[in-house]
Amino acid sequence: MYYMIHPTKGLQGDVKIPGSKSGTARGIVLGTLAKGTSRILNPMPGIDSYSIIDCCRSLGAKINCESDDEWIIEGIGQENLKPPAAVFDVGNSGTGYYILTALTAMINGKTVVTGDYQICYRPIAPLLSAIREMGGQAISTRDNELAPLLIGGPVEGGHTVHLPGRNVQWSIGLMVCSPMLAGDTRIVIDNVGERPYIDLTLDWLKAAGIEVQNIDNYKEFYVRGGQTYHSFTKKAPCDWCGATYPMVAAAITPGSRIKLLGMDIHDFQGEKVFVEIINDMGGKVEVLNGGQDGVIIEGGHPLHGIEIDCTNMPDAIPALAVLGSYAQSGVTKLTGITACRMKETDRCKSIVQELSKMGGKFEETMDTLTIYPSKLKGATLYGHDDHRIVMASTVAALGAEGDSLIDSVEHVGVSFPRFYEEMKGIGANIVRLKEDA
Q: Which one is catalytic: 48, 239, 315, 385?
């Protein structure tokens, strides 16, 4: 599917941001493990969420996702875990991949875990090593420590496992599953990044009656065994990462004034710092009543480059690359970006490739991206089958000189299904083209 993006000024109106993809994913799995009825309010109705739902249904959970406002889960209870009735196909969900791989190691039996072609190249070796260390089986069918995987359990508690911190999702799966083991588990993380994802996980675990202790400032996590998941009702906060795209679009287009609805500046998501980033760069963002009454972004203010630590928001690199390119002065330097290279794509490489077509200028190392002010021009853009590259490239095209054509736009369904509808609703000049364009 293709869209033509025409240069646009003066974005005006309200934007409804969907619920957090990460929070929804955790809620689906925890609700499955609990006995009784759990409810997820403000869920993310995205492709990844439905992939996780399919896996949990194969375990026996009954999940009603007919309403966009509330999903209802009839859990199976952790004592009823047994090998699923089908292969665990997580689709494109990285969160689902890591959590469900750990979950299958808790089951007495063997489970095949796989996903789409991107998942089958996402690193998981440290988690597989931890499963083996805890007494489980973890076999890569291609003998390369990548999916498809054959996971055999159950693993045992009473272990201390060490995991690198460059991808915190390797650890999060064990945090979710280790409370069900008979013995206690210690998870030691070396140089942990992405801390908001840990905080988000601990918050959802607490809602389900599970305690995981954060020891020595995220260096170690103590998980008491023999805990029981309980049903819960919890709201997924609106997705700050999804919000970054209309925020950047408004900040770089003169005459714009938009309001994001239902945000919470006090939740755990790392991307909420975009409020500070845009203001620090010379833009104007106002948070009303902690975000509950809206977050207002005004365009037309000259931006200047700054240095930004991205350790706690690896998904934000594409949007920040666009924002830095539109600065009128100064260099923008992103640090702590290594984790973004292990997502659906190497997101630093992907966004640099697309913005360079438009005239963007960059320098990158493994852990940094330096962005120079540039006058971007329209181009034919490739979305890399990655929702965040698609949305960031679209935003870049709105402020460019000349029209741009972008493909694989359907991938926004992973995290922001109504992205194009919301953007057109505030005046973005975007036209869907026929399939044979």
A: 315
